[in-house]
UniProtKB/TrEMBL annotation:
Name of the protein: ATP synthase subunit delta
Alphabetical UniProt keywords: ATP synthesis, Cell membrane, CF(1), Hydrogen ion transport, Ion transport, Membrane, Transport
Family: Belongs to the ATPase delta chain family.
Xref: InterPro entries: ATP_synth_OSCP/delta_N_sf (IPR026015), ATPase_OSCP/dsu (IPR000711)
HAMAP family to which the protein is assigned, alphabetical: ATP_synth_delta_bact (MF_01416)
Length: 185
């Protein structure tokens, strides 16, 4: 399956593509995906870690020690740990969040999946998620992998983003449209 030129052309995409190729050759795509999920969670939980990987004043060797310690702490596979070392050596650890997103997109495309982000005003239960996944699968013609988040500002309804497409059925948007229509009337 052909990936978008945008992913391959970006710095993060080139690193993610190289990591995916290595993981494919080693038969460890699933393990690397799990490792990257752990890294994504660690970055989401720790503002200090996010600040550290973005700090240009941290030396390559210090950054190398940090990512080696992180790899040990998170029990990452040797391939992922080595990859983090390469990122530290090349001063590219700051691109890690974008690399993780690009790797996920590449892996999903190889499996014939499409990723969708769903924002809702309240958490969705399992049956609502299953129904949404079935409808999106029918619409897209392929498997849809959902990532959910709660956004109370929506008031109600959903905002679904699939690639560059956005389906906005939120109450906030409907109210804004109604307000705009009333202004123009």
């Amino acid at each position: 399956m052909e990936l978008s030129a945008g992913i391959k052309a970006s710095l993060a995409g080139r690193y993610a593509s190289a990591l995916f190729d290595l993981a494919s050759e080693a038969g460890s795509v699933s393990a690397v995906e799990a490792d990257l999920d752990k890294l994504r969670a660690a970055l989401a939980e720790s503002g200090e870690l996010r600040a550290l990987i973005q700090n240009p004043q941290v030396s390559r060797s210090a950054l190398g020690r940090v990512v080696a310690g992180l790899a040990t702490h998170l029990s990452l596979s040797p391939l992922t740990a080595n990859f983090l070392g390469v990122l530290a050596e090349n001063r590219r650890v700051g691109a890690l969040p974008a690399i993780i997103r690009a790797f996920a997109a590449i892996a999903a495309a190889q499996r014939g999946e499409v990723a969708a982000e769903v924002a809702s005003a309240h958490p969705l239960n399992a049956s609502q998620l299953a129904e949404l996944e079935n409808r999106l699968r029918a619409r897209e013609g392929r498997t849809v992998k959902l990532a959910t988040r709660v956004d109370p500002d929506l008031l109600g309804g959903l905002v679904v983003t699939i690639g560059s497409k956005r389906i906005d059925s939120s109450i906030r948007t409907r109210l804004n449209s109604l307000a705009q229509a009333m202004k123009n009337a």
